[in-house]
Specification:
This protein is α/β, with parallel strands linked by helices. It folds into two domains: about 200 residues, no CATH class; about 90 residues, Arc Repressor Mutant, subunit A, CATH 1.10.10. Helices cover about 50% and strands about 10% of the residues. A four-stranded mixed beta sheet has the order 1-3-5-4, with helices on both faces. A three-stranded mixed beta sheet has the order 2-6-7. The longest helix has 18 residues.
Length: about 300
């Protein structure tokens, strides 16, 4: 059974994404915003407030807002969405979860309240002050992607938008919601439920400085500049390998291989084959084939 694709965007999505990117310390080294952005954000908060928000994020890890954002019928600015969310009764919270067949924690109202409090803090000190071009660009990206949907090539669209993730149909999956994001570049993250998947994909909304190479070209050249990553591509040239198999073949730690795969995925150099029960990787020749042309265009332009 084929799944359908929908593209969605609202400022609250990016607010949540930016907070998550900041709080996930283990991913800071791979964030394109860099540690400079992390330090700049830290300066906006008292250390105790950051600790409080981090504790909240850990406590509410099982509560994902994407289904509620997607369901929200009214204004989906940060304040508009949070006002709606906080006004929901306990029964309404559970009804939305049940309608999407989500697993429901017993303390759902408490998780809702703590999450909303942390997001209001984040919005007040940081998110309200970001470059408005970011949200404008994300909204335009969503509108452009939406206009290209025709319902006949959903797997191809998903792979193109995510730079290499190939999502196979299964008997449960009915719909995929694609959501553009900026702060969490280069990550592509998915929240997977039985019938619906929410995939946040990275977008280069702000252009590089005049005369500087495009972000995508930099990802390609950085990914190919490392011996281990080149070896991984060689391994994937004629076969599919799981993460565990790559770890075994390369003989490095899981965390190191994870880091290398982030770089290769961000550059669009690997296909991530995702079916209902497993994930494997193979070489995505499309990115390699366009490298020389992109370099020539940049140098000669």
């Amino acid at each position: 059974m084929e799944y359908s694709i929908e593209v969605d965007f609202a400022p609250i999505y990016e607010c949540v994404s930016s907070l998550t990117a900041f709080m996930n310390k283990q991913n800071h080294n791979a964030l394109e915003a860099g540690k400079l952005w992390v330090r700049e954000v830290q300066d906006r908060f008292a250390p105790a407030k950051i600790l409080q928000m981090r504790d909240t994020m850990k406590a509410t890890d099982g509560f994902n807002l994407a289904p509620y954002i997607w369901t929200c019928p009214g204004e989906r600015s940060v304040a508009g969405f949070l006002n709606w969310l906080e006004d929901l009764s306990t029964g309404q919270l559970y009804d939305i979860a049940a309608g999407l067949k989500l697993s429901v924690p017993s303390n759902l109202p408490e998780l809702r309240n703590r999450t909303a409090e942390a997001l209001r803090e984040w919005d007040s000190a940081y998110f309200q002050h970001i470059d408005p071009s970011i949200l404008k660009g994300l909204a335009q990206e969503a509108e452009t992607r939406r206009s290209h949907l025709n319902g006949t090539n959903n797997q191809e669209i998903y792979e193109q938008v995510t730079e290499g993730m190939r999502l196979y149909p299964n008997s449960h999956l009915k719909k995929v919601i694609l959501i553009p994001q900026y702060h969490a570049r280069p990550f592509v993250t998915s929240v997977i439920f039985d019938e619906v998947i929410f995939t946040h994909y990275s977008c280069d909304i702000l252009p590089p400085a005049p005369g500087r190479p495009a972000h995508g070209l930099m990802r390609l050249t950085r990914a190919l500049s490392d011996e281990t990553r080149l070896y991984i591509l060689r391994l994937l040239a004629d076969r599919h390998l799981t993460f565990t198999e790559i770890v075994r073949e390369v003989n490095l730690s899981k965390s190191t291989i994870h880091y290398h795969l982030i770089a290769l995925r961000a550059a669009g150099l690997v296909i991530v084959h995702v079916d209902h029960k497993s994930t494997s990787y193979s070489l995505r020749r499309e990115a390699l084939n366009k490298l020389s042309g992109e370099i020539a265009t940049y140098i000669e332009d």
